Amino acid sequence: RLIPTGIGKSLLERGENFRGRMPTSSERSARPPSISYPRSASLGDRCTATEYAIVASIADYGVGEGDPPDVVARQRRAKRIVETDRLGHAAEKGYDVRLLDMMVDPLYPKRE
Q: 75 near 58, Cβ under 8 Å?
């Protein structure tokens, strides 16, 4: 199965009826109705879909040089929760997984 790679797209449900028109980029990139969040059983036992959506919204927030350190830290913690949830789901399906941190690049601070 394919899942959206962008966190923000995971919050949008893909439409099924485009009424003869080409779907927008957001509609094509959004999650199909068959995928629900949180993905892993371990996070699913700890939070609801609504709580997950809040964490994912925080994780999707783009931080920059001028953002206060507490905002940056909050975004990174939320992103780590989402990334760990995705890895947990893959591990539950039998995949070998690991989480790696990329080095910070001043031209692209998101580290994705």
A: yes
Task: Report H helices in 1-112.
Answer: 7-10, 25-29, 41-44, 49-60, 69-92
| CB 26 within 8 Å of CB 9 | yes
Q: Residue type for 108, please?
A: Y
Full-model pTM: 0.73
Residue 26 pLDDT > 80:
no
SS3 93: coil
Query: CB under 8 Å to 14, separation ≥6 — which residues?
Result: 27, 28, 30, 31, 32, 33
3-class state of residue 101 by DSSP: coil
CA distance 81 to 39: 11
